[in-house]
Amino acid sequence: MVNLSELENDALVEIFNIGVGHAAAAMSEIVNEEVIMSVPSITFLNRADAAALLGSKKDGERICGVSQHYDGAFATEAILMFPEDKSLEIVRLMVGDSVPLQELTEMEQEAMSEIGNIILNSCVGTLANLFDSELHGSLPLYHVGTSAQIMSSFSGPDDAVVLMLHIDFVLAKHQIHGYVAFVLDLSALHDLKEQVNRYLAKALGQA
After folding, report:
1. Tens-digit pLDDT profile for residues 118-129
2. Does the global pTM surpass 0.70?
């Protein structure tokens, strides 16, 4: 589906690690606790396989997601996803223990949208900076549903490629695994690969 060389793949992992590092610093300020994030793997999948990967933890598990559309150097739908039961845990970290559960669930959409905006813009902003190009994002949208429902809600051709980042979030008393997915059509995928190769050429030229 996607032919990335080992060097290109390593460059993408390095770029996204920088991006989630920036997001971790921003999250740390919000939850008043050290947040460590890492990108252990990048996988390219079709939509059905991406949904299957997200739903593999528990059969029919509901996912909480926040998405934004970006265009510029390449066009993509970006979405941050957590298991639904973990999203309230993250919101609780943001607002503290004193908020009643009912109020917490009412705040969940707004709080998760803010978190999604921070993490997605950190990842995409890092791409734009390192690629020396521009990427413009829409306002965040909140989603809850099964992995298949969420992955099928995005526009674009059926043969679109999904770039999946598996992100580990480690807090002092919590370990939460999330995913960031970028839905790319074949043209956008070509643009992304071209940007990675320009970045590599520049980096190798300065070495």
Report:
1. 889 988 888 888
2. yes
